[in-house]
Amino acid sequence: MNIKIYNYTYFFNHLDGSLQNLSNEQRQQIVDKLVQHLQSFMPEEVYVPHRKDGHPDHEATYNLVAEAIAKSQLKVELQEYPIWMLWQNPLSSNLKHEDFTHVYRLPIANVNERKTKAIQNYRSQLPGIPKGLIGRFFLPHEIFFKN
């Protein structure tokens, strides 16, 4: 098995809470840039917030990435991760039985230190988040939904 892990971050410099209000032109610019990144890296998997996460920016991110993957015409396995979704109400009426057919738990103990550092880089996002939800960020596993 040949596994390449990319530790790469690219910021589009849009304000928090603004992704669901993009103009068509802004949306297309982001999708086109994502297509360029996808075609440059040729990933087999892409990880994105869950499409029904309950946070407008997270859901908009899913939609932008899914559109870019379709436009790129690459065969990419899309993995969705919940952030707010499992905290707010895991049995929400927004979720259907079929949404849970491809759920799995992945051990992440070997990257927990890096994850903790990443969370610390986003301290501005932490105020107002319930302590129980923050505690979930430090579990030795993550939940993913295979699209």
Automatic annotation (TrEMBL):
Lineage: superkingdom: Bacteria
A Pfam family hit: PIG-L
InterPro entries according to UniProt: GlcNAc_PI_deacetylase-related (IPR003737), LmbE-like_dom_sf (IPR024078)
Protein name from the UniProt record: GlcNAc-PI de-N-acetylase
